Amino acid sequence: MSEKSVLVQDLAQLLAGDEGYSAQPWQSLVMVGEVVPGRTSMNGFVYLDNGQAVPASPRSMEALKKLKEVSAAMQAESGKRWLACVVRIDRPSGKVDIHFEYDDAERWLITPQNVAGMAETLRPAA
Fold first, then answer.
1. Which of 10, 16, 69, 103 has its CA 20 to 30 A from that of 61?
2. Which pTM does this prediction carry?
3. 4: confidence class by pLDDT, cuts 50, 70, 90
4. How far is Cα 95 from Cα 87, in angstroms, rounded to an integer?
5. 42 — pLDDT class (breaks 50, 70, 90)
6. Structural domain harbouring 74
């Protein structure tokens, strides 16, 4: 398994087990991550078993540290730095899917003005 794959799996485990939402009956977890000089952030949604999307962000700083490690490893490997990523975790199957954005830093940006729309945009396919 590549270093990137190991780091992504570690990140997914940290996100899935985060105390901020691990006790909730979520079926899917979608987190948007950003690593820029001076700031690392991650927020998104848990999608409950009743379909409700609940805004969430990891409480653990370990997830943010791991996100930085993923970014650094990928940049070292490819020479390119991504601007944002989206991590999707399906709780029942344990499937993890991650996508990286290299051009548009605001592609998945969640703001107070677009939170409802982004909850639907990021919602995993049924």
1. 103
2. 0.93
3. confident
4. 11
5. very high
6. 3-122
At CB < 8 A and 24+ separation, what contacts does 19-28 make?
19/59, 19/60, 20/56, 20/57, 20/58, 20/59, 20/60, 21/46, 21/54, 21/56, 24/48, 24/54, 25/49, 26/54, 26/91, 27/90, 27/91, 27/92, 28/88, 28/89, 28/90, 28/91, 28/123, 28/124
- Residue, of 85 and 38, whose pLDDT is higher: 85
- CATH number of the domain within which 76 lies: 3.30.500.20
What is the rounded distance in angstroms from the CA atom of residue 87 to the CA atom of residue 61? 17
Is the C-alpha dihedral spanning 49, 53, 57, 63 positive or negative?
positive
